[in-house]
Structure formats: C-alpha cells, structure tokens
Write a structure and sequence with these properties.
- The protein is an alpha+beta fold.
- It is built from nine helices and 15 strands.
- The protein has two domains: 195 residues, no CATH class; 136 residues, Immunoglobulin-like.
- The radius of gyration is 31 Å and the shape is globular.
C-alpha cells in the first residue's frame, strides 16, 4: 500500500514544525512571562517590608499591628466612598429608574419631595452638550495658567506638573429650580438651584517624578441661590447677577496617589472639611459673588446688603432622649451626655455638655445674623459626647419665615431620625432698621 500526497503520515518526524503554543500563553523566554512571575514576588516583598523595617529599627510587634489595623480601616473607608460614588453615578445615568426603586430620600432629586420645585431637563441637556467644550477650556486653564502660578509660588514646586487633566463625561446636573416672585421685592427675582455634580473627573499632579497625587471622582451638591436684581426697563433688563450657597455644600473626593493618606478615617473628614471651609469663605453666606451687567448698579450694595434681621435662640431643655452609653454589649443600660450644635448657614454654635442626663437643661442663649429669608433655616443637632466618636441623638430643621412673621416662638420641637426625644426652644426675631430715631423705642422695649 502506497502513501498518498497530503497524508499527515508522509511528514518526516525530524522535519516537522513545532506546534504553536495555545492562544494567550506566552512563549518560553518571553519578558511578559517573567514579569508575571516577578509581580507576585514583589507584592509579597512589599507587604513584608514594614515587618523588616520594624525589626531593623528594634520596634515591637505593636507597630506592625497598628499599621495593619490602619491599613484595614483605610481600605474600608476607601471602598465605602467608592460605593457611594458608584451609587451616585447610577442615579445620574438613570434617574427615573432609581426614583421608582425608592432610593434613599437624601439622594432623591428635589422635585420628588417638594412640589414647588420644578424640573428643568432642557437646561441639563444644554449643559450636557456643552460640557466637553467646557472641559477643554478648563484643561487649558489648568496647564497654561494654574501650573505656572504653582511653580512660581515656591522654589520646591518648580517641577510641579499636571500630568493629566480630564473633567470626564458626566456633567453637572440641576435637580430642580424654585423661583420666588411673591413676597419678595418687585425689582428682583430669586432662584434656588438644586445643584449636583457627580463627576468622573481625573486630575493628576507630579513633582520631580517622585511625588504623585491626584483626584479621581468628586461629588458636590448643595443649594445655589441666584438673585437677578435690580430689574430694569432697559436692555439687558437685569442690573446684576448675585450667586451664593445658602448652606455649606456637601463634598466628597476620591483621592489617588500620595493623597490616598487623606482617606484614613478622621483625616478624611478633616481634609474634606478644610476644603468645604475654603469654599464657604468665598461662596457661602454672608459671602456673595456679584456680576454687574450695567454701569448703573452699585455692586458693593448688592454684595454687602444689610441683613434682614437677628435670630435669638434660647436653648432651654430637652426630654426623653435615647440612651447611648451602654456597657457590656448592652447588658447594663446607661444614659447619655447630650450637647447641641446649632447652625444657620455658615454660623455655628455648640452648647455645653450635660453629663449622664436624658432630660438635660441648658438655659443658654445664642444669636444668629440672618441674611436671607426665605432660604436660611435653623438646624439643631443633638449628640452624645464620647471619647472616640459622638453618637447621634436626633435633629430638627426650623424654617424662619413664620418666626420672622410671629416675632416670637416658644415650643417643644420633636427630634427627627430617632425613636424619641424633643427640644424646648424659644425663638425671637429682631429686625434691623436704618432709621436712627427708632433707637429710643428699642431701648424702651
């Protein structure tokens, strides 16, 4: 029997070509294969490095355990922040679906909870279309303007560089607008804009190719008030535009590189708080941004208007607060060490702490300068003072419109978000008058 051409048995075994390796598997001697073997080894050596350093320096095992616990808490805080960021992105991508699922009311758009807040989807579509062009402008601004300023500010920063500036694909969103045209001056229009920015921006910096840091993802949301005043009978019909945040906006930043140290619990709150305070020093009441549109307007009067009044708050007492100081995993019931934090816009006051008391009596008085009504509210939060982290005992928000109208309110206010508890407050409103002849009347009163 003869062998036919094309029969695989006709191939000389010595001249046969070697079989090709399976797809995806690197060839022997491939640098990628060597790198894949060295990567786990380098990771193990990196994890063992703190142990070696502690042993070299003669430190105890306590330092290693402390570093391990610190890394665990940092990793947990990082994952929780990323989870909140992803949830906000999902809400931004499919708002109607998330609303029907019944998401947390703190994340729902304002038009869901307040019928007088209007949806403005057409504005969001315009902003979404313009966002890439705004991002290009900001990238040039960071690299051509801000980078030279940072380098010139300090000799150690002469190698400072923005390695990446990208404002992402997710544009800011307006969750609703509330317009005030009644009970306000006829020559002005007031708009409260529920602003939300859940961005996938990425900004990386580098100093001498050694220090690398940056931001990857940011959340900012708050109420931005826009005042169009005074209204004119000539073009452009509006004399100036004034903008400010009524209260401090909520801020959350996902750090990268060396700034990952800011994700450590405690440090994260402090760093975010410092950035919010910096924003508040420019954009939160009583600070304002005013843009004149014509020469007939006095910008100083619009930027520094006379406050509408003074709110005097008497923090008298509370009752039926929940006990938070429990011992032996709740077997022994304790009490609480309550104190109150009162806030109006950028003004904060903290009361003294009453030890071991669920029905505390403070009898303290505080005064707040009120700039915008409606808009500003009195916020009261109660906490139980602890050595590590203070426990929440309840909160309440009081609108100042009816206080301004009634001049005096003396009531018990129930606390929200807790099982029980109420606070006794006495509120007094004092209007500011420019007439000097009214001073005797005030002194007699």
């Amino acid at each position: 029997m003869t062998r036919q051409e094309g029969d695989p048995r006709n191939v000389d075994p010595q001249g046969a070509e070697p079989a090709a390796p399976p797809a995806g598997r690197p060839l022997p001697g491939d640098p990628l294969a060597l790198l894949g073997l060295l990567r786990p080894l380098c990771r193990v050596l990196l994890l063992l490095l703190p142990v070696y350093v502690c042993g070299r320096l003669g430190l105890s095992l306590t330092w290693v355990l402390f570093g391990l616990f610190l890394w665990i808490f940092w990793n947990r805080n990082k994952k929780s922040k990323l989870a909140r960021m992803r949830a906000a992105w999902e809400l931004l991508d499919n708002e109607s679906l998330e609303v029907t699922r019944g998401l947390n009311t703190q994340q729902l758009p304002a038009w869901v909870n307040f019928p007088d807040v209007e949806r403005v989807e057409w504005i969001n579509k315009v902003v979404r279309q313009m966002w890439p062009y705004f991002g290009t402008y900001m990238e040039k601004l960071f690299q051509e303007k801000i980078e030279p300023l940072v380098r010139a500010s300090n000799g150690h920063l002469n190698a400072f560089t923005f390695t990446k500036v990208h404002f992402g694909d997710k544009s800011p969103r307006i969750n609703g607008i509330k317009a005030y045209t009644k009970k306000v001056d006829k020559r002005e229009v007031i708009l409260d804009i529920q602003l939300c920015y859940t961005g996938d921006c990425e900004i990386n910096v580098e100093v001498k190719k050694l220090c690398k840091a940056g931001v990857k993802g940011i959340q900012v949301h708050g109420t931005l008030r826009v005042i169009l005043a005074p209204l004119l009978s000539d073009v452009p019909f509006v004399g100036a535009v004034t903008m400010f945040f009524i209260q401090k906006p909520h801020l959350e930043i996902n750090w990268t590189g060396l700034t990952n140290i800011l994700e450590i619990p405690g440090v994260s709150d402090m760093s975010d708080g410092m950035i919010v305070d910096l924003i508040a020093s420019y954009l939160v009441l009583p600070n304002r941004f005013t843009f004149p549109l014509c020469g007939q307007v006095n910008a100083a009067e619009l930027r520094f208007p006379v406050p509408q009044g003074v709110l005097r708050v008497y923090l008298l007492e509370a009752e039926h607060l929940i006990p938070k100081d429990n011992y032996l995993k709740g077997i022994i019931k304790g009490k609480s060490d309550p104190y109150a934090v009162m806030r109006v816009g950028n003004q904060n006051f903290k009361s003294r702490t009453i030890k071991e008391n669920l029905d505390p009596r403070w009898n303290e008085m505080y005064e707040f300068v009120i700039h915008e009504v409606p808009g500003q509210d009195l916020e009261v939060d109660l906490y139980d003072e602890d050595p590590d982290k203070d426990d929440f005992l309840g909160s309440l928000v009081i609108g100042l419109e009816h206080v301004m109208k009634d001049r005096m309110v003396d009531e018990w206010f129930p606390l929200s978000d807790v099982v029980s508890g109420s606070v006794h407050l006495k509120l007094e409103w004092f209007s500011l008058l420019a007439a000097r002849d009214k001073l005797p009347e005030v002194s007699d009163w």
